[in-house]
Amino acid sequence: MRKRILTGDRPTGKLHLGHYIGTLENRVKLQDEYETFIMQADVQALTDNFDDPQKVRDSIFEVALDNLAAGLDPDKVVLFVQSQVPELTELTIYFKTSNEMAAVFVILGEIGGIVSDAKGKPWHMGLNTMISARSKKDYDFLKSLYENTVK
Prior knowledge:
Strand order of the largest sheet: 1-2-3
Distance between the termini: 39 Å
Number of domains: 2
């Protein structure tokens, strides 16, 4: 099984030489070695183009053409639009919730020194990090605080 690459562009206009040197050239080189997915991150592009969503919509096709013109082979790579894959929105909600829970633990841990990873450092590495609290009671308190107020 080949390794995978997920990369993408924020469709806010035509790509330029900086895109070619910075990413497109490598995408072309790696398309034979990796299973490659290239996302047109239209939802992400709306964060700073909310006042002109038509610009984002119009740029999706242009950016896809720029990727193909750079030498990407549509038989080797998958080009897709972020907003057309509902599972990405679902995953975003889960990851956002996880990160908010981690932020609560970090904030409370930094204030009270309660939550830390297995090496005693403040917990900020995400949900896969081992959590150790001063006591199970402290951890249970933080967990109930999160579950009853943040969710």
